Every structure is written in structure tokens, then in C-alpha cells.
Amino acid sequence: MILWVMAGLLFTPLAWAVLTLLTGFRHGRWISWLGIVLQALVSVGLWAFVTRDGGFYYPLGGWQSPLGIELRVDGLAVTFVLLTAVVAGACGWHASLYLDPEKSWHRYFWPLFWFLWAGLNVVWLGDDLFNLYVGLELISLSAVGLVALGGQAGALRAALRYLLAALLGSLFYLLGVALLYGQFGSLSLSGIAGLLESGDVESVPVVIMVLMLFGLAMKTALFPLHKWLPPAHGIAKSPVSALLSALVVKASFYIAARVWLETGHHMGGYALGQLLGALGGAAVIWGSWLAFRQEKLKQVVAYSSVAQIGYLFLLFPLTWNVSETISVQAQQGMTLQVISHALAKSAMFLAAGNLILSVGSNRVDALAGVSRFLPFSLFSFGLAGVSLMGLPPSGGFAAKWLLLQASLASGQWWWLAVLLFGGLLSAAYVFRVYRASFVEKTDVDEFYHPHRSLEVIPMILALLSLGLGLVAEPVLSVMAISFSEGGGL
Amino acid sequence: MTPSLLYAFAGVGLCTIGLYGFVRLAHLLRKLLAFNLIGSGVFLVMVGLAQHHNGPDPVPQALVLTGIVVAIAATALAVVLIRRYFHLSGQTTLAEPARGNDEGASQSGEDRQR
Amino acid sequence: MMSGFKNLLTTVFCLMLAVVLGFAVWSIGAEPSPVNLPGHLSENLEKSGVEHPVTAVLLNFRSYDTLLEIGVLVIAGIAGISMARTSSLEDPELRTSDSLLYALQRWFVPLMLLLAGYLLWAGADRPGGAFQAGAVMASTGVLMRMGGIPMDFLRPGTMLRLGLTLGFSVFLLVALASVWGGEAFLAYPPALAKSLIVVIEGVLTFSIAMVLLALFVSAPINRGVEPEEGERG
User: Fold this and answer.
1) Rounded to a whole number, what is the distance in Å from the CA of B112 to chain A's nearest CA?
2) Residues C86 and C140 placed together within one structural domain of the fold
3) Is some CB atom of chain C closer than 8 A to the CB atom of A183?
4) Between A45 and C157, the higher pLDDT residue
């Protein structure tokens, strides 16, 4: 049975990419709806199986590592697979209603969307370092294709900047992998972690970890390597921006987190962890400040992504050379932060798309009067903002609470400033958007009202991110699923 | 010191030269060439270092083949994007053009562009 | 003045990076690696269905990487043709009026196709295989295009998209078929391994060539207008 679930998980997105390439936008829509349902079912099936039987390693082609490629299906992987099913499904559904079927090049949205989903699954389940590189490339090229879809010079400029930054990041990561293979002779992350634990290899040059983390940080748009993100996420179509901010930047972060958690104790260092945390803190402040100053609505949301990504990098100092309980606390906080940010940011981008559609302009000050006539979309935007600010009972609050506890328990009290001020700063730019929309401009409703389903989707996502704090326990229990006895298939 | 280790050092050299070009050159096609140079450097390090330890090793050779195909795909996509960008804007660098007409925000909402 | 300073800064940084990396390479090179992968490989080679170890790695031991990498190629192809001109591909600028080149094609094209076929066949027990053959076929197509031969199958349409995905689809179907047989995803049954690899390599060659050629031919002009959201076109 598990064979079918695994095959479905790996096969469905790739097969759907081929199917939707051969059809137009409208038929692609129907096929993709079916595909989203199928993918959701398979993801839930995987979760059910792992909850019952524990995590396992899945050797592809029947070859065990280090000769073959093994997939690692554990609680964290299942969490991210489920998150992708929810967020990518919502964005795909929104895109099917939002994009104009009359434009012939929109037919290429679906194959790129499905290849993106396939790449994301490759990364969540991956344990082989080179396989993770190929997965990253799958994601980057689909994302660039989606940003550039039929665009004008501005979109192409953003897509090119994104492509060049993504490629440079991948190559630095690959250089680290090359050195790692030279040192260990194996490409399996768990294999290398095992070798380090057993003490077979004494000291590994720290430059390997620096290279890999630098490349992955570049792809995650950590300050000061973030220059490519605001143009790309701001100019792309809203469903694409939602996918990019919610899931694509998390893929490289996921790999960085895995590598750090498995091998950082031996291959990393205190200074490296603190440096990443400091850059994360700088990202929070700098990103929020720039978000406050933007003129265009989607640029506000894009810079907000830069700021929120900064929180993620607090994982590194909080899990280096600390006790097991503190490390687990930090990991749990980070998982909640990723999930709540993915839900909130996708809700924000989809709601922003609706608002721009209604108002006919993408400037913040053009939102005047929206609060009176288009409350639904504005409300979704606001609810998503609540999670970004970290107010209870949202997922953002639960995540920050856990991270605060981890900071205090490990004696690294200086991260408190980042966590507390960050919430204040996000409030600034969310309220700025609200202030613009509350300006009374006219008594007549001259806005275009988008289709009801277009407004419902971001609302659902925003409510999920808001309620995440209430259901944090069950969500975190998925992550904590241990490996089955025996460990292999 | 086997020849393979020399290849690895040559790879390091190529990486740093390519990085310098990538950062300092403004023309998009030259940035792309610099990226390919870095790629070749990484591949040399991968094969050279592994074969220095274990002799002829098919695994990194296969990995490099895969890497070359991925690099070709990325380069080809970049070239298509650059060509279209040049065709639409006349520019060969990523510098922002002088914005003469800032897009007007139509308050009446009559523009229904999607 | 400022750019001279930036040049200096970048040079210093790159030199430092070179030194650090060189030192890392040297220290890694000094100790042996704990895992001997080539040893593992030679033990399992007969079970893989081909004699050449690199082909065995690419198409059997690490076939998942190859499947995904073909996926990356197809993505690049899709993104390229999404910018294709919607009307005719017969762009006069791209065709040469060189009669010598046009005449020489009568000799070059069959020879190059033969070379591609040989490379594909040779991949079983010596360097060669789908990628090399696909690259040679793609360059044959480029030569034909520059020599002024119109190739109808490159017009945007269902035929083009079918051709792009053929190799990838066959590979994917083989991967799924093994699950029917109760094995893991991508596990070839040992008796059929060699024939499956031959089939996969054949269709892969064709698809790789089509993707590369389509990317070369993608004219950069799309007559439609797609402005940024909220802006006038």
C-alpha cells in the first residue's frame, strides 16, 4: 500500500505536468482541479501511514544508499508535504479563476505549476545531497518561468535577476556538496551524519558549511542577498507571488535546516550560527522598514516576505550546541513559523491580487474606499496581517512564543529584541495599508467585484493561519513522529 | 599529489575567476558566461577531489553529466529571456531605465486589466 | 573612481576565497574518504543491465536524478516556447542566404545523424549515451535552421509539445510500471533492465534534441500584451 502512496506522491505532479502541457488553459483547469484533489488525498494517505507505522527510508529503484538515492519520510517531511498540498492547492484553485483564459500563453501556467509542485515534493522528501540540488533547480526554473510568463520588460528584468541569483546560489551549494563528497565519499545526508556521529572523520573544514549555507541563504533571500526577491514577487501574477513567497523560498531554507540539524554540530560553529541569526534580525528590521515605505501594494507584501524570512534564520543559533529540549523547542517554533507564514503570506498575496483587480491599480493610496465596499478581501488581508504581527491566537504568536522560550533557555537573550520589535514593525506596514483603505473617497460603489470564490480562498488561508495557534499541538505532533523500528523498507 | 588534485585546484581557480566576472560584469550575456565558468569549476572540483581518493569514479562523472544538462537548460532559458528582454527594451543590462512616465493610478477603476 | 574601488574589493575577496578553498581542497585531499563508492558500484554492476558504469549510474542506480533532470530540461523548453511567436516561425533574419552552407548540409546532416545514432548505441559499454547523442542531434537541427531549412514540426502546436514530453513521459511510465510489479518506484526487473534502458535512452535522445532545438528557435516576440497587475497595458 505504501508503495502506491509513494508512487502517487512522486508520479502525480510530474504526470500532471505532461498532461496539462498538451491541453489549453480551460481543459488544463479541469485536469488540474482533479490533480489537486488527488495530490491532497495522497499526501493525507502518506500522513496516515507514517502516523501508524513510523517514519522510514525509501530506496528509489531498490538501491540502498550510498549507491542509490534514498528518500527520507519522517514527521518533518510529512508536515511540509501536507502544507504544500494545502497552499499549492489553494493557489492553483485561485489561479484557475484569476488568470485570463483568452491569453494563449496562460496555458503554460499549469505545466510550470505542476513541475513546481513536483520539485517541492522532491526537496521535502529528499535525503541525497545531489538529488536536493536537482530538486532546487526544478523549483527555480519553474518559478522563473512562472514569473516571466508572457511578461513585459519589467517582468523579464525581475525574472532574469531571479534566475541569476538562483543559479549562483545553487552553484555555491553544489560546490559545498562536491567538497563534502570528496571528504566522505557519500552523498547521503543521513549517511554523512552517521559518519560524523561515530567519529570516523575528525575535522571538516568549516568552509563547506559556509558555502552550502551561503548558497541556500541566497536562494532564501536572506539579507543582504535579498535584492532579487521584491521585484520578482512584486511583479508576478498574484497566485504566482503567493506560491513563491509561501513555498519556494522555504525549500532552500528546509535544506539548510536539515543540513544544520544533522551535521551542524560537527561541521558548523558558534560564530556561524550567530552570524546567520544576526543577518536574520537585520532582515526583519530592514525588510519591515522598506515595506512601510513602498508605494505599490504588492511591493509592501514582498518586502514583508523579506522581513519574515529573517525570523527563520533564528533557527541556526538556537539549535547549535544546546540541549535536546531547547533544540526541539526551537525546531517546533520554526516549523510553526514556516506554516503560519506560508498560510498568511499566500492569503495576503491572493487578497492583494483581488484588491488590485477591484481597484484597477496597484498603488497603496488607490485603495481609498475599499473598506466600505470590498470588506471581504480587505478582511482576509488584515487577518493574515494578524498572524504576521504575532498576535494570539495565531500561528505566528505560537511560533514566536516557542522561539522566545528557546532563546531564554539557551541564554541567548539578545534574540528577544528581534522577536518583539519585529511584531511592532509588521504592525506598522499592515496598518498603513488599512489606513489607506479607510479613507472615504466616494459614496458610490465603482469597484469591480471579483468572483466570490476568488475572495473565499484567501479568507480560508487567513483563517487557517489565525487558528493555527489553537491547533498547534496536533500540528506539532506530526513533526514529532519517530522512525519505525528497522527504519528501512 | 595526483593529477586529479591538480584538477581540483584548477576548479577552485575557475570558480573564483567566474565569481569575479559574475559580480563585476554588467552585461547579461557576460554574467551568463561567468556563471558557466563557475559551473565548470564546481564540476572539476567534484570529479578531481573524488578521483584523487578512489581512482576513476563513475558516480561524480555521472553527477557532472547531470549537472551539465541542468546548466544547459538554465543557460538556454536565460538566453531566451535575455533575447526577449533586449527585443522589448533595447537593454543588455539589468539597470533600471529612466522612468519618464510613472504609471497613472486610475481611480475610477475603469481599467479592468487582469 | 568608485568602480575601481569595487574592482579592488572584489579582487581581494575572490583571492581570499581562492586561498580558503584551496586550503580546504588540500586538507580534504590529505585523508582518505571513509566510503568507497566505486567499490560498491563494481560489485553491483552486472545487476544493472549495462556494462558501462557511468550509464549504469545514470540510468539505473541514480535514475531518479536523471528523470528529474529531464524534467528540468522540459521546464526550460516550456518556459522558452511560452515566449514563442504565435504566428509563423519563419523569421527571415535567422535564415542564411549562404548557398555553400545550404549545399554542404546534404553531406553534414546525414553524417551527424549517424554520429548521434552511434553515440547512443555506444553508451552501453563505452562513453556515450542519450545526452551526447541528443546534443549532437540538436546541433544538427541548429545547422539545418541556420542553413535555411524550414522545419514544420517546430511550429508551436500539439506536435511540438508532444515531442518535448515524449522522452520524459516514457521514462515516467517505466518508473510507475515497476510499482505495478510490487517493487519500489523506478526499480527495473533485472531480466528487463537492459531493454528498458535501451528504450528509455532512445526516446530521451529524441526529446533532449527537441527541447534544445526548440529553445534555440524560440523567437523572442510575442504579439500579445501582458502588463503588470493594476497597470495599463
Assistant:
1) 6
2) yes
3) yes
4) A45
Which domain covers residue B34, as residue numbers? 3-89
Contact with chain C for residue B113, Cβ under 8 A: yes
pLDDT for the residue numbered A243: 95
Q: Are residues C20 and C90 in the same domain?
A: no
Each residue's pLDDT tens digit, A419-476: 888 888 899 999 998 888 888 777 666 777 878 888 899 999 999 988 888 888 888 8
For position A91, what pLDDT does the model report? 95
Q: How far is it, in rounded angstroms, from Cα C165 to Cα C170?
A: 9
* Residues C122 and C18 placed together within one structural domain of the fold: no
Phi, psi of C69 (to 5 degrees): -70, -35
Are C111 and C169 contained in the same domain?
Answer: yes
A166 — contact with chain C (CB < 8 Å)?
Answer: no
Distance of alpha carbon B113 from alpha carbon B101, whole angstroms: 19
pLDDT (0 to 100) of residue A255: 96
Inform me whether the pLDDT recorded for C95 exceeds 80. Answer: no
Residue C97, in any domain of the structure: yes
Number of domains into which chain C is organized:
2
**Given a cut of 80, is residue C115 above it in pLDDT?**
yes
Q: Which of B5, B20, B113 lies nearest to residue C11, judging by beta carbons? A: B20
The answer to whether residue A108 neighbours chain C at the CB level (below 8 Å) is: yes
Low-confidence ranges of chain A (pLDDT < 50): 485-489
The answer as to whether C75 is a domain residue is yes
At position A150, the amino acid (one-letter code) is G
**Average pLDDT over chain B, rounded to an integer:** 83
CA of C204, closest CA in chain A: separation in Å?
Answer: 15
Note down the domain range covering C2: 1-30
Q: What is the ipTM of this complex?
A: 0.91
Contact A359, A400 (CB under 8 A): no
Same domain, C144 and C199: yes
Best to test chain C binding among A10, A98, A114 (most C CBs inside 10 Å): A10
Positive or negative, the CA dihedral A83, A84, A85, A90 is positive
- What's the whole-number mean pLDDT along residues C148-159? 73
| A488 and chain C in contact, CB less than 8 A | no
Regarding whether C55 and C4 lie in a shared domain, the answer is no
Flag whether residue B26 sits within 8 Å of chain C, measured between CB atoms: no
Q: Which of B60, A65, B47, B62 is nearest to C50 (CA)?
A: B62
* Residue in A closest to B61 by C-alpha: A178
CA distance B99 to chain A (A): 12
Domain assignment of residue C102, yes or no: yes
pLDDT: which is higher, C178 or A194: A194
Partners of residue C187 in chain A, C-beta under 8 Å: 60-62
How far off is chain B from C212, nearest CA to CA, in Å?
Answer: 8
Which residues of A fall within a CB distance of 8 Å from B108? 360, 446
Contact between residue A358 and residue A370 where contact means Cβ atoms under 8 Å apart? yes
Has residue B105 been placed in a domain? no
Any domain includes B16: yes
> Each residue of A205-220: b (16+ CB within 10 Å) or e?
bbbbbbbbbbbbbbbb
Q: What is the pLDDT of residue B99?
A: 54
CA closest to A363 among chain C residues: C230
Contacts of C159 (CB under 8 A, 6+ apart): C153
Confidence of residue C89 (pLDDT cuts 50, 70, 90): very low
Nearest to C48 by CA among C31, C68, C34, C62: C62
Average pLDDT over chain C, rounded to an integer: 82
| Cell of residue B28, nine digits | 547579461
- What are the two backbone dihedrals, phi and then psi, of residue A382, each rounded to the nearest 5 degrees? -65, -45
| Domain shared by C15 and C58, yes or no | no
Total beta-carbon pairs less than 8 A apart between chain A and chain C: 201
The domain locations on chain A are 287-489
Establish if A168 touches chain C: CB-CB under 8 angstroms: no
> Which residues between 145 and 204 in chain C have a beta carbon less than 8 angstroms from any beta carbon of chain B?
none
B59 inside domain: yes
Look at residue B84 and tell me if it is in a domain: yes
Nearest CA in chain A to B5: A182
Contacts of B42 in chain A (CB under 8 A): 171, 174-175, 178
> Domain of B51: which CATH number?
1.10.287.3510
Residues B58-113 have pLDDT tens digits of 899 999 999 999 999 999 999 989 988 888 888 888 877 765 433 333 333 333 33
Q: Are residues A123 and A136 in contact, defined by beta-carbon separation less than 8 angstroms?
A: yes
